[in-house]
Amino acid sequence: MSFRNTPLAVIHDVDKETLLTPELRAEIDKHVAKYPPEWKQSAVMPALTLVQDHNGGWLSRELMDQVAAYLDMPETAVYEVATFYAMYDLEPVGRHKVCVCNSVSCMLGGAEELMHHIEKKYNVAPGGTTADGKLTFKEFECLGACRHAPAVMVDKAYHECVTPEAIDKIIDDLD
Amino acid sequence: MSDDKITLEIDGRVCTAAPGEMIIAVADREGIVIPRFCYHEKLSIAANCRMCLVEAEQGGRPFPKPIPACATPVGEGMKVLTRSKKALDAQRGTMEFLLINHPLDCPICDQGGECELQDVSMGYGEDVSRFSERKRVVKDEDLGPLIATEMTRCIHCTRCVRFGAEVAGLRELGATGRGEDMRIGTFVGQSMAHELSGNIIDLCPVGALTSKPYRFTARAWELTSDEGIAPHDGVGSNLQLHIRGGQVMRVHPRDNEAVNECWISDRDRFSYEGLNSPERLKAPMLKRDGEWQEVDWQEALHAAVDLLKAPGPDQLGVLVSPSATLEEQFLLQRLVRALGSDHIDTRLRQLDFSAAAADPRLPWLGVPIAELEQQQAALLIGSDIRQEQPLLAHRLRKAALSGATIALLNPYEVDLNHRSIQLRSAPQALDRDLRALLKLLGRPPVAGPIAEPDERHQRIADALTRAGQAGKGLVLLGALAENAPVYGLVRALAAEVAAAAGCQLGCLAPAANSVGSWCAGSLPHRLPGGAAPARPGLDARAMLTDPRQGYLLWGLEPDRDLADPILAMSALRAAKQVVACTAFRSPALDAVADVLLPISAFAETAGTFVNTEARWQRFQGAVPPPGDSRPGWKVLRVLGTMMELPGFAQNSAREVHDELASQCRDLTPDNQLRGSMPATDLSSATPQGAELFRLGNVPIYATDPLVRRASALQRTPLAEQLAVSLHPEDAAALGLADGQLARVVQVATNGECIEVNAPVVIDDRIAVGCARIPAGVEGSGELGPIMGPVQISKAGD
């Protein structure tokens, strides 16, 4: 048996109809349908994204456990995915997420300056949320937009070649 | 390619390999050392430590980069260099990265001196680190009383994670976070509740996971090592005992593919703690006018001789722990038979002896242990297999993962870590489901009540039939069946089911030397070598229901190890002479015995255990018994000589073993039942009116006096306390809620009525009409039969 070739399925002792919401389950099912039946857990990333969006931008442990139960996978395996990727938040967040890429190209292209600017102007440290709850500021591990560094993802939209002035405008236009 | 074999060259040596084998496996077989941390032959391949990088070429073309030997399959004509400059440079580079974050705390690390990282860094590490930044620090998690964590030392090989997922079937550990934030843990901070969890201590190549009970008690280089055999279940796991100053400091597994592979259960690993229990009996003791006094051996032995002779031939009963060595059991039966009685038994928790005449010649597992995992179907009757035989459960899990159907017929649904079909019936009604199976298997109906066969019965019958045709089916009887009041009937029906489906019948030996009793003749109806005596003696139960005048108790506690503690205690209290040979003192023994002789426990005596596959495994005493206690066989030899009985002149345990072995030459494992279907009278075992049926399971850490005194094991979540587990329906009918105190009323076989209070646990896995009240645990000694009618009500009503 190999860890990689056969997923460890854990059948949870719950009625799946009681998990999440019917709409979420239907959405997740669309992703589950893309994989072979024994590879249901391949849908964990889209499932977590859907659940996170539905929950105001963050994942609680209960929600992760429900995803694990819904996809017949061990809870730990869900925690592993959720802690690995930067786009999942495990604490409550602000109404918007401002994610500044800190990988090499963006750093060279001025991401550090951009981050200092946000930190000072909005009085929020990376990983933190502003006092008014408007935005959560995140340092992000590679947005994959090196060509137009520095890149910033605000909620689900990419912004490229971002300057401090540009980010102020983007943030002002939120809400 | 001839015979599907591949020829390749490793370091200039020509090797043959099977297609698909990894380079490292071939190198290991050839004795070529490749350093590694994450690779383990029993686990899947992760290839994440990168320590096993080697240089290779295939078809005359070199691989552009060094390749991981653990994850690269061999190819025809491949040339591998494990010690070339390129390979060594790559290995050194990996080592440097691994050491970047590894703390330099070897002097205070338990793994120091036996650490794979330390060893490899001696070969590949640099003297000076080029890394001058701050090292990372990782917060520890509490994994429970058995495993100590120091996660800063972790090098992320993920062996423990893979062990959990693949072997234990419990994916609790995981690697959360990324990059420098990656850490191994449960993320939610729960303790590992698994009967094999201790194996991750051995798997961890560094000092991140170490043994908590052993922590800071010894250094690896102070220890000497001796071989041993585990004394708790029918597997007889091979052990390596690590000793310092005449004390067992810790226990490790010894590889034996045929028995325990490279694993051992936590019970076998941590029970050594019981050896140092404050309750150890270290000197012979005599009861004078109700007061216990320490005496010398001479005096104690003379007293014991007088006590054993006093009752006269038919009036002496001998109850022997099934974990006693073969040598002890052999000499014990010789002693009691020389005194003129056959009243000796090791089946201490069995209630139903009605079918003793049909007993097989040498009941055993039915197949070798190693073949369990090749079965295509197995039906386990009355067995909480993970609790009873952790490593056999692991073998059956392997079978299940490769597609076998594992079915269980139990009084409660057991926790399993694989797919299974579970049938649930009260202990006194196990026969009904078996009759249903027989019906589906096309056998003529057997008289008696029958369960309505449903789709699960059909699936079990089909699977057994298919497996039987392939010669790979098994019907196994476990401890819950053996202790049930309908054992004779269940066993006969199980044999019918096995025969009808073409499967093997097997018996799971409940203790380390249960099978040995059948060889040594320490049973009322068996002589050494398996012959039957002219007239069978009294069995373990009959000796108590029909009380004797004198008893000899060997290695047991009457209130914990016997089927009906109340009956046992009253018979022993009334007896005029009770000699107890024991390694531990206990209030119950103090109350009933007249003399206590201190005998050796596990690891302190030479001896032999016969495991459930009838494999004789000899071992030597690794440490001296504490104080004045003596190896059991020596005590018996002296007793025999003092009584001037023949056959007690052996000079060594080996001589005792050889004498018995020569008598057992023709004794081969044989599960064939003699005689016809027994007519079991169930009237006394059937609950009347509002009564429930007590279902006394013996929890994993309550099986014998040694493990009951292993303090770390007793603190794990698997150690059960006295409680009354009820099905929600029964609880509702009785008006009991979870956590409430219930009054348990049980009538012992001698008519004594006992009342005990215990908390209620509501559990829908228990069969309706049953109350699971464990035996062998603290407080269970106040109760009656391990299985039988019981009245439950709200305490205080």
Strand order of the largest sheet of chain A: 2-1-3-4
Oligomer: heterodimer
Spatial arrangement of strands, main beta sheet of chain B: 15-14-25-24-23-16-17
Task: Enumerate how many helices of chain B there are, as a single number.
Answer: 23
Gyration radius of chain A, in Å: 18 Å
Cα(first) to Cα(last) distance of chain B is 81 Å
> What proportion of the residues of chain B is helical, as a percent range?
25-40%
Name the overall outline of chain B: globular
Please tell me the overall pLDDT of chain A: 91
Main β-sheet description of chain A:
4 strands, mixed
Task: Write structural notes for this entry.
The complex is a heterodimer of chains A (175) and B (797). With 175 residues, chain A is of the alpha+beta class. Chain A has helices at 22-32, 44-54, 61-70, 75-84, 104-122, 164-172; strands at residues 96-101, 135-140, 152-154, 157-159. In chain A, helix 2 (44-54) crosses helix 3 (61-70) and helix 3 (61-70) crosses helix 4 (75-84). Chain A starts with 21 loop residues before the first helix and ends with a helix. The relative contact order of chain A is 0.12. Chain B is built from 23 helices and 33 strands. At the A-B interface, helix 4 of A face helix 4 and strand 8 of B.
Question: What's the SSE blueprint?
Answer:
The complex is a heterodimer of chains A (175) and B (797).
Chain A: H1 22-32, H2 44-54, H3 61-70, H4 75-84, E1 96-101, H5 104-122, E2 135-140, E3 152-154, E4 157-159, H6 164-172
Parallel strand pairs in A: 1-2
Antiparallel strand pairs in A: 1-3, 3-4
Helix pairs in contact in A: 1-2, 2-3, 3-4
Chain B: E1 6-10, E2 13-17, H1 23-30, E3 53-58, E4 61-62, E5 67-68, E6 79-81, H2 85-100, H3 116-124, E7 147-149, H4 159-168, E8 174-176, E9 183-185, H5 199-203, E10 209-211, E11 224-229, E12 238-244, E13 247-253, H6 266-270, E14 285-288, E15 291-294, H7 297-309, E16 316-320, H8 326-338, E17 344-345, E18 377-381, H9 385-388, H10 390-401, E19 405-410, E20 421-424, H11 430-440, H12 455-469, E21 473-477, H13 479-482, H14 487-501, E22 504-507, H15 514-520, H16 542-545, E23 550-554, H17 565-574, E24 577-582, H18 587-592, E25 595-598, E26 607-610, E27 616-619, H19 632-642, H20 653-663, E28 692-695, H21 705-708, H22 711-714, E29 724-726, H23 728-734, E30 741-747, E31 753-762, E32 770-772, E33 787-794
Parallel strand pairs in B: 1-6, 16-17, 16-23, 18-19, 18-21, 19-20, 21-22, 23-24, 24-25, 28-32, 29-31
Antiparallel strand pairs in B: 1-2, 3-4, 3-5, 3-6, 7-10, 8-9, 11-12, 12-13, 14-15, 14-25, 26-27, 28-33, 29-32, 30-31, 30-33
Helix pairs in contact in B: 8-15, 8-19, 8-20, 11-12, 11-14
